[in-house]
Amino acid sequence: MANTYFFTGFPGFIANNLIRHLIRKQEVNHIYLLVLPHMMEKAEQVVQSIANDENISSEQFQLLSGDITQPDLGIEESIQPYLQEQITHVFHLAAIYDLAVPKAIAYNVNVNGTRHVNDWVQKLTALKRYIYFSTAYVSGKRTGKILETELDQGQTFKNHYESTKYEAEVLVDALKEQVPTTIIRPGVVCGDSKTGETIKFDGPYFMLNLFDSLKKFPFIPYIGKSQAYGNFVPVDYIFLATVYLAHAEVSAGRTYHLTDPNPYPMRDVYAMLMEEYLKRMPKGTIPTRVAKAGLSLSYMRKWLRVEKESLDYSRLIAEYDCTQAQQDLKGSGIECPDFKDVAPVMVNFYRENKNNPNYQIHIS
């Protein structure tokens, strides 16, 4: 039986591509897309692109002007009763994804916005599943093995992105007894394992930005001697796994780490990307505290195109256990690709688009 879907976060990269994977894997009746008023024109273009590429009618989509920071998501009151009777699946993707975001902005969108979405989904009479996009880093500064079943462990946080995503997940987790809910915690997102396409050049791409900025230097050192492991996950794995788990009966009420089950040490990732991009290997090591002091200077951050906050993740010694995700994906054919196989495609996409302002994030 065809389902009726509702997405926040459109026309963002994640919503756009998740919808494409959804259309390929599920029978879709209709898709409602919540869009900020100033994004309507772009949303219309993206809908037409999806319809053309996936060979479906654009009439299966409906754009709804709204805002998650408003009660009832700012959706026109006259259409609310109809939506409440029709929608079977809600994907809440809208959030501020920025390690350097100010607290007030992050709190309003990530926490208040999620509170409003939570209130709204409880009014949906046909709801089969509420899928919330969180992050593995709701664990904050915790170290050691981190389980999918854990949330509040008294942790502290590295930035306002983490703390507000944690507070939002606490709100969603509390709904599990009343609403069929699935929480998705991705690791650090990197490019599509086949095309290299990505959302933006952050996370592991900060390393590539660093290499690009220093490529004329006689050598480029490692940063720190941390024994941390990388937690980089190709975006297509996240899409495929999310669509599958959103419809699996067993996943109602569960939280999943969509993380790399076989991660590489950060120093290996650093060397792997440098060799792929510059055909060179790192030489020597600069202490992390020295690198962080340098990135405390605005002109250094802008020149290197690296956020200071990213260094915190390169030395976090944490293991994101994904046993439940691996178990519930068994038999689906969906597996996380080996980062070693993804790196060449990822680097090639970066090389072709490194000067495209649509991919480089603003660094102040």
What does this structure look like?
InterPro entries: FAR (IPR026055), FAR_NAD-bd (IPR013120), NAD(P)-bd_dom_sf (IPR036291). One of its GO terms (molecular function) is alcohol-forming very long-chain fatty acyl-CoA reductase activity. Residues 8-239 form the Thioester reductase (TE) domain. The chain has two domains: 3-189 and 232-258, NAD(P)-binding Rossmann-like Domain (Rossmann fold); 197-230 and 263-318 and 338-353, no CATH class. It starts with a strand and ends in an 11-residue tail after the last helix. It is α/β, with parallel strands linked by helices and 364 residues long. Strand 4 (89-92), helix 4 (103-121) and strand 5 (129-133) form a beta-alpha-beta unit. The model has no long low-confidence stretch (mean pLDDT 95). The protein contains 13 helices and 13 strands. It has a seven-stranded parallel β-sheet with strand order 3-2-1-4-5-7-11, sandwiched between helices. A two-stranded parallel sheet has the order 6-13.
